[in-house]
Amino acid sequence: MLAWTIYISFIGVLVLMLLPREAARAARIIALLTAIAGCVVAFAGAIQQSNPGEVTTIVKVPWIPSLGANYFLAADGISLVLVVLTGLAAIAGILFSWNVEKRTKEFFAFYLALIGGVYGVFLSFDVLLLFMFYELTIIPKYFLIARWGSTRKEYGAMKLALFSFVGSHLVLIGLIAAWVVARAQTGHASLDLLELSKVSFPLGFQHWVFPLVFVGFGILAGLWPFHTWAPTGHVAAPTAGSMLLAGVVMKLGAYGCLRVAMVLFPEGVRMWQGEIAALAVIGIIYGAGVALVQKDFKFVIGYSSVSHMGFVLLGLATLNTIGLSGAVLQMFSHGIIAGLLFAVVGRMVYDRTHTRDFNDLQTMQLGKLLPFAGVTFVLAGVASMGLPGFSGFVAELQVLMGAWKVFPVATILAGLGIIVGVAYILRAMQKAFYSDAPPGKFGHDHPLEPISVPERIGAVMLITASLVIGLFPGLLLNWIQPCLNSPLFERLLKGGSL
Amino acid sequence: MNYLQVIQLAAPETALTITVLVVLAVDLIVLRGQTVEQRFHAGMLVSIIGCLMAAILAFAHFEQGNLLNGMLVVDPQTNFLKVVLLMLTIFTVLISASGKFTEHVGEYLSLVLLGTIGLMFLVSAEDLLMIFISLELASLSLYILTAFNKRNARASEAALKYFLFGGMSAAFLLFGFSLLYGLSGSTNLPQIAASLAGRGPDLLLLVAIVTTVIGFGFKVAAVPFHLWAPDAYEGAPTPSAAFIASGSKVASFYILAKILTLGFGGAEGSAVWHGYVSGWTPVIAIVAALSMVLGNLTAIVQSSVKRLLAYSAIAHAGYMLLGVLANTPSSHSALLFYVITYALTVLGAFGVVTVVEAATGGDALANFAGLNRRAPGLSLCLLVFLLSLAGIPPLAGFIGKFFLFSAAGGADAEHLGLLWLVILAIVMSAVSFYYYLQVLKQAYVLDAAADAPAIKVPPVTMFALVLLAALVIILGCAPGLLLRHL
Fold first, then answer.
1. Which residues of A touch B398 (CB under 8 A)?
2. Which of residues 466-485 of B touch A (CB under 8 A)?
3. Measured between alpha carbons, how far is A423 from A364 in angstroms, rounded to an integer?
4. The Cα angle at residue B28 between residues B23 and B32, in degrees rounded to 5
5. Sequence ranges of the domains in chain B
6. How far is CA B51 from CA A223, B90, B247, B252, B292, in A?
7. Which of A72, A376, A433, A458 makes an SS bond possible with A95, Cβ 3.0 to 4.6 Å?
8. Residue A130's closest chain B neighbor by CA?
9. Which SS3 state, helix, strand or coil, does residue A75 take?
10. What predicted TM-score, i.e. pTM, was given to this entire model?
11. Quick check: B409 and A176 CB within 8 A?
12. What's the pLDDT tens digit per position in B344-390?
């Protein structure tokens, strides 16, 4: 059933392509209906799955026998979490791009193609298939940003596309090498993730191939120092684009790190565990520090994404159940919160004021002009800081708890990163919405379009999601934790058990 | 041997030869007074019918045989390749319809068909003499096709360059062949291999290897024998360039692999990292590495799309050479899969360039600006072709690369000895994404001048392009359809 999330999205693309060019309204509605249908299927499929700890096959048919590749879609609890996240983010993104007037149907066609690819990655249990969906997302990303973006959009789009492509090619080298070695060892060709995970690759081989694949995926997860595509890409992208980039695309990278790199090469992870943790902590602190001094509102959020994704990577590096489940939870939480922050900055503020410069925003007193935007930002901001009650808190707390057992120093440094996180959110909040600077050239005589209904719905939806998970984290942890105790992760976690 | 057997085994080639005569006759006798367009359509119809008949003969004829000690070898694989070559010719003819480069329709079409006949014989040859003769038949047709636009000085320059380089490489090839004959006393590939076996790499054999590689390196446009390619691609009428890049590539790679694996059977040597043994694989490894690096890096700075495709062709030749040097059964079929899908894709790309050139008067990057608005269908086809060349899934180019690289990587699975070449290829293919994206950026991101009219695509060409794009997608999603024939 879950496979229909992929098919529905691509059917939506086809329908949109057949629409006449002028039918902007129809295009929006079709896109929204497609996204809702995808989300409903995702939820229904997730609830239907009786045992989230097990990899449940959705469809498995032979595809390229000579390579051992199957068309193999399946899901376990971790896939479910991310599929549900994708469903929510897809709807929210469309609600916040209701005002796209330029070439609307093409915009949504690329958008849905991206969503379809993302669903595909989260549901593939054949590494070739996973890789294909992973690369499939690059093209829509590029065109969404280059065509509908703002600030240096062609540069940002090209940078993102090239970083993604280089990353995926690092992964490709690793996959081909792993395929060759596994075939030589077992005597038959296979690209099945479950089968490959049972192969013990030689230690020397894991030593060089693991970092290749991990960094290849990590580039998209905002792994420092390969994160530089993220701020420029986020800033250049249209609102829905940055929501998806931060919300789900960065998760593709982290998911690939966990699902492919770490599961296939468990000894490799242990050899590089410390390095990964170090890079993750640098990313947390660096991202937060840079966010603190930005002049552009959107860059603040862009760098905050790098910082928060650092927690995901730190969680992955802990190699214990609590750290890993924190990492997955943080993927979900950050997907929701970053989406909301980008929605406020890009759609609610920038599309109305046409500036993101704090010096200009300071003089506008947006807190009074756009109270809804102000309140939304405050809520999203405190969620992002990690206030108890919101999803960010439980996620980051678990990551830190997991990390404390393995890397106490790194944990303390990451805790410092959280404090800086409070500072940059407060600064942004104050400068953008609640400044007491005297009204400037954009004063009250310049009426702003009121916050529209789709925006309100989208904002409420995302805040609710973050609150629900913050208050009842068990909803997702019941999916995640059984997975981590499953045979698939056994070799990975046996060294650093709870 | 009796002549009936020759006719039977060479039935497809015979049918095509008759078609050549018919095309010429129809054009020169019947259609004298008609407009160029009408003559093109009539000639196209005759050529396509001829090609289809030849293809049916090749496909339906299960006769196998080996005539005159390797002069004409027919088996299911060569027959399948002939069908592929004929299909590529049909597509070439179809995209020629929108070119406005000549009034000599009959001559043009018959030269395309003659070139195809040469390539078909080439595929069937296992004898040095026959290989050389069919190669020359194909090459001479290609030289003339390159020069076909008489009003364009660049075409003449390109053709002259192509011809001079070609003549020289033919000389190298003959020199190598003569050495081989002297060493082994035979012109038949398996017999050469048998008498060279156990001989070990000596100087004469190495010279024979190097000169043979030079000769074919020119045909497949591999560095450092590539210098003619960008000029020829740019100056030649676009459909001719498409033919050079597609059909001629398929046959040349097939025969190159055959000569090296069959004829130099005992002299492989080894290109394994830290395990170098002299023979033909190290020579090919060097040529492959140079082609991948130089082709991709030079393509980045091109502003003419045809030159860009030429450099990308050089780079792709580098990838394909990996399939040659891996020298395992799976790498052989991976090579054929790659070269066939590449031919289909590049034919499509040149088809789009032909239309854009006819409508805007040039093939510079800027001529593609706003193509998405001016011709949405055409631009979608271009998207498919270029992304396939870049190796984006789920298109044929990606799965071809995966086959090729995994076969090359698997050739020495114990030590992953060829992995250095695979890594180089993958890194370079990441570079290539940039320049393909440059073209697509023009088509999809930038706007055309405000008064630029919509581009009218001739229905015949559009039909061919859509068919090619569909093939590229289908072969990417279900590669088994093609793979099981190889």
1. 132, 135
2. 479-480, 483
3. 22
4. 125
5. 3-483
6. 56, 7, 14, 20, 34
7. A458
8. B393
9. strand
10. 0.91
11. yes
12. 999 999 999 988 988 888 888 888 888 888 888 899 999 999 999 99
